[in-house]
Amino acid sequence: MKLIRISDNCVLDFEDVYSYELNASTIKFKMRSKEIIVAEYNNKQEAEVVYNNVTESTIVKDVRFAPLFKLKEGSVEDRRERGFEMFWGLYDKKVDRPKAYITFMNLTLTDMALAIKGVEIYIKSTPNKKYRKNPRTWLNARGWESEITKDEEDVKKTNRYIKPNYITDER
Prior knowledge:
This protein folds into 2 domains: 3-57, no CATH class; 71-145. The protein has helices at residues 44-57, 68-71, 76-91, 97-105, 109-125, 135-140, and strands at residues 3-7, 10-13, 17-23, 26-31, 36-40. The strands form 2 sheets. It has a 3-stranded antiparallel beta sheet, with helices on one face. The longest helix is centred in the C-terminal third of the chain and has 17 residues, at 109-125. By secondary structure, it is an alpha+beta fold. Helices cover 39% and strands 16% of the residues. The termini are far apart.
């Protein structure tokens, strides 16, 4: 049982409250017992102070306006580690992992995301590993910013055979 005084003449069992909202100079408490209690205050500022105090003293946490990275589990370092593992798994040329790791960790989070997206395109454009840059070289050159000239979708497969004019029959 957690009792909260919300006005001079009203004390609530807050374990029975399932929602509350602020409207100008009133706070409406909805109870599990189907009861609605409306607390009226002299002005808007007084209602806001009580509302904020109720919010701070309860377990309710408002996450609507929190940045997205705070909602995800793990610290920034964990996200960087997972990013490198994704990059390493996608690159498919396993050369000099420790140095590639150091280079990747020196990138900003935005650049890490761009590198992971860009590596997929780069791998498709260089199917032969022999001609692919080493991971660290690609990261240092900021390969995700480079324009890929040979893309599988851009290569048109056309028939170069031109039928000579002297052939008349259709075989």
